[in-house]
Protein backbone atom coordinates (compact mmCIF):
# COMPACT_ATOMS: atom_id res chain seq x y z
CA UNK A 1 0.00 0.00 0.00
CA UNK A 2 1.51 3.39 -0.97
CA UNK A 3 1.91 6.11 1.63
CA UNK A 4 0.51 8.74 -0.74
CA UNK A 5 -3.26 9.02 -1.18
CA UNK A 6 -3.56 12.02 -3.52
CA UNK A 7 -6.56 13.16 -1.44
CA UNK A 8 -4.70 16.31 -0.41
CA UNK A 9 -3.65 17.39 -3.88
CA UNK A 10 -6.32 20.10 -3.97
CA UNK A 11 -5.13 21.71 -0.73
CA UNK A 12 -7.42 19.98 1.75
CA UNK A 13 -6.81 17.38 4.44
CA UNK A 14 -8.93 15.21 6.69
CA UNK A 15 -9.49 16.03 10.35
CA UNK A 16 -11.64 14.18 12.85
CA UNK A 17 -15.15 15.04 11.69
CA UNK A 18 -14.51 16.51 8.25
CA UNK A 19 -12.11 18.10 5.78
CA UNK A 20 -10.43 21.48 5.96
CA UNK A 21 -7.87 23.42 3.96
CA UNK A 22 -4.27 22.67 4.88
CA UNK A 23 -3.74 26.25 6.06
CA UNK A 24 -6.71 26.08 8.46
CA UNK A 25 -5.95 27.18 12.03
CA UNK A 26 -6.61 23.63 13.23
CA UNK A 27 -4.03 22.13 10.87
CA UNK A 28 -1.61 24.94 11.68
CA UNK A 29 -1.95 24.14 15.42
CA UNK A 30 -1.50 20.40 15.25
CA UNK A 31 1.07 20.74 12.47
CA UNK A 32 3.21 22.93 14.73
CA UNK A 33 2.88 20.32 17.46
CA UNK A 34 4.08 17.73 14.93
CA UNK A 35 7.06 19.96 14.14
CA UNK A 36 7.78 20.25 17.87
CA UNK A 37 7.62 16.48 18.20
CA UNK A 38 10.34 16.14 15.55
CA UNK A 39 12.60 18.48 17.51
CA UNK A 40 11.88 16.53 20.70
CA UNK A 41 12.95 13.40 18.82
CA UNK A 42 16.19 15.12 17.92
CA UNK A 43 16.77 16.18 21.54
CA UNK A 44 16.03 12.63 22.67
CA UNK A 45 18.75 11.30 20.38
CA UNK A 46 21.20 13.81 21.87
CA UNK A 47 20.37 12.62 25.40
CA UNK A 48 22.18 9.37 24.74
CA UNK A 49 24.49 9.11 27.75
CA UNK A 50 23.59 7.49 31.06
CA UNK A 51 23.49 10.82 32.92
CA UNK A 52 20.42 11.66 30.84
CA UNK A 53 18.48 8.39 31.26
CA UNK A 54 15.75 10.17 33.24
CA UNK A 55 15.44 12.95 30.68
CA UNK A 56 15.42 10.57 27.71
CA UNK A 57 12.61 8.53 29.29
CA UNK A 58 10.57 11.69 29.90
CA UNK A 59 11.16 13.00 26.39
CA UNK A 60 9.90 9.72 24.92
CA UNK A 61 6.78 10.03 27.06
CA UNK A 62 6.33 13.65 25.99
CA UNK A 63 6.52 12.60 22.34
CA UNK A 64 3.54 10.28 22.91
CA UNK A 65 1.67 13.08 24.67
CA UNK A 66 2.36 15.52 21.85
CA UNK A 67 0.64 13.08 19.50
CA UNK A 68 -2.27 13.15 21.96
CA UNK A 69 -2.27 16.97 21.84
CA UNK A 70 -2.45 16.92 18.05
CA UNK A 71 -5.21 14.35 18.13
CA UNK A 72 -7.26 16.42 20.58
CA UNK A 73 -6.91 19.51 18.38
CA UNK A 74 -7.94 17.55 15.27
CA UNK A 75 -11.57 17.25 16.45
CA UNK A 76 -13.89 19.50 14.43
CA UNK A 77 -16.59 19.11 17.08
CA UNK A 78 -15.94 19.17 20.81
CA UNK A 79 -15.60 15.59 22.06
CA UNK A 80 -14.51 15.73 25.69
CA UNK A 81 -15.15 12.03 26.22
CA UNK A 82 -12.45 11.20 23.68
CA UNK A 83 -9.81 13.70 24.80
CA UNK A 84 -6.47 12.26 25.82
CA UNK A 85 -4.84 15.34 27.35
CA UNK A 86 -5.92 15.87 30.96
CA UNK A 87 -4.94 18.28 33.76
CA UNK A 88 -2.83 15.54 35.34
CA UNK A 89 -0.31 15.74 32.50
CA UNK A 90 0.38 19.40 33.26
CA UNK A 91 0.63 18.69 36.96
CA UNK A 92 3.19 15.97 36.29
CA UNK A 93 5.22 18.41 34.20
CA UNK A 94 5.22 20.83 37.14
CA UNK A 95 6.67 18.13 39.40
CA UNK A 96 9.38 17.39 36.84
CA UNK A 97 10.17 21.10 36.48
CA UNK A 98 10.49 21.49 40.25
CA UNK A 99 12.84 18.50 40.38
CA UNK A 100 15.12 19.82 37.63
CA UNK A 101 15.06 23.39 38.93
CA UNK A 102 16.31 22.12 42.31
CA UNK A 103 19.32 20.73 40.43
CA UNK A 104 20.01 23.95 38.50
CA UNK A 105 22.06 26.90 39.71
CA UNK A 106 20.07 29.99 40.76
CA UNK A 107 18.90 32.07 37.84
CA UNK A 108 19.98 35.71 38.06
CA UNK A 109 19.96 36.97 34.46
CA UNK A 110 18.17 36.14 31.26
CA UNK A 111 19.94 33.36 29.42
CA UNK A 112 20.50 32.81 25.73
CA UNK A 113 19.86 29.50 24.01
CA UNK A 114 23.08 27.54 24.01
CA UNK A 115 25.70 25.71 25.94
CA UNK A 116 25.75 22.04 25.06
CA UNK A 117 24.24 20.58 21.88
CA UNK A 118 21.51 18.96 24.00
CA UNK A 119 20.68 22.23 25.78
CA UNK A 120 20.57 24.03 22.42
CA UNK A 121 18.17 21.40 21.04
CA UNK A 122 15.97 21.72 24.12
CA UNK A 123 15.85 25.49 23.69
CA UNK A 124 14.65 24.93 20.12
CA UNK A 125 11.96 22.66 21.58
CA UNK A 126 11.02 25.46 24.00
CA UNK A 127 10.60 28.08 21.28
CA UNK A 128 8.69 25.79 18.91
CA UNK A 129 6.51 24.78 21.85
CA UNK A 130 5.69 28.44 22.49
CA UNK A 131 4.67 28.79 18.84
CA UNK A 132 2.52 25.66 19.09
CA UNK A 133 0.85 27.18 22.15
CA UNK A 134 0.17 30.41 20.24
CA UNK A 135 -1.34 28.43 17.35
CA UNK A 136 -3.56 26.49 19.78
CA UNK A 137 -4.70 29.77 21.35
CA UNK A 138 -5.50 31.21 17.92
CA UNK A 139 -7.60 28.13 17.21
CA UNK A 140 -9.30 28.33 20.61
CA UNK A 141 -10.40 31.90 19.90
CA UNK A 142 -12.34 30.69 16.85
CA UNK A 143 -13.70 27.37 18.08
CA UNK A 144 -13.88 25.21 21.16
CA UNK A 145 -10.79 23.12 21.88
CA UNK A 146 -9.51 21.02 24.75
CA UNK A 147 -8.10 23.76 26.99
CA UNK A 148 -5.90 21.19 28.71
CA UNK A 149 -3.83 21.09 25.50
CA UNK A 150 -3.14 24.83 25.78
CA UNK A 151 -2.21 24.45 29.45
CA UNK A 152 -0.01 21.44 28.71
CA UNK A 153 1.90 23.31 25.99
CA UNK A 154 2.40 26.27 28.31
CA UNK A 155 3.87 24.09 31.02
CA UNK A 156 5.87 22.04 28.52
CA UNK A 157 7.79 25.10 27.33
CA UNK A 158 8.74 25.76 30.97
CA UNK A 159 9.88 22.15 31.22
CA UNK A 160 12.14 22.55 28.17
CA UNK A 161 13.69 25.67 29.71
CA UNK A 162 14.39 23.86 32.98
CA UNK A 163 15.86 20.74 31.38
CA UNK A 164 18.00 22.76 28.95
CA UNK A 165 19.63 24.34 31.99
CA UNK A 166 19.99 20.91 33.62
CA UNK A 167 21.65 19.53 30.47
CA UNK A 168 24.26 22.26 30.75
CA UNK A 169 24.68 21.76 34.50
CA UNK A 170 25.18 17.99 34.26
CA UNK A 171 27.87 18.46 31.64
CA UNK A 172 29.43 21.32 33.64
CA UNK A 173 28.83 23.90 30.92
CA UNK A 174 27.54 27.26 32.14
CA UNK A 175 24.36 28.77 30.75
CA UNK A 176 24.98 31.57 28.27
CA UNK A 177 23.87 34.72 30.07
CA UNK A 178 22.47 37.76 28.32
CA UNK A 179 25.19 40.27 29.17
CA UNK A 180 23.30 43.50 28.50
CA UNK A 181 21.07 42.89 31.48
CA UNK A 182 21.47 43.41 35.16
CA UNK A 183 20.38 40.79 37.64
CA UNK A 184 16.65 40.43 37.05
CA UNK A 185 15.91 37.25 38.99
CA UNK A 186 16.50 36.51 42.60
CA UNK A 187 14.91 36.52 45.99
CA UNK A 188 11.58 38.29 46.21
CA UNK A 189 11.46 40.94 48.89
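-> sequence recovered:
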Amino acid sequence: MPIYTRTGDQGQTSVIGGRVYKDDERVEAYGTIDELNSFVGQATSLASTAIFDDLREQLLQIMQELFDCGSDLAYVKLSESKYKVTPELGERLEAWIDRYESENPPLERFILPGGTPLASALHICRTVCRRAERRAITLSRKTEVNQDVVKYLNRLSDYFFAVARTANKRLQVPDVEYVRSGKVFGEKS
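Residues 13-177 form a domain with the Hypothetical Protein Ta1238; Chain: A; fold (CATH 1.20.1200.10).
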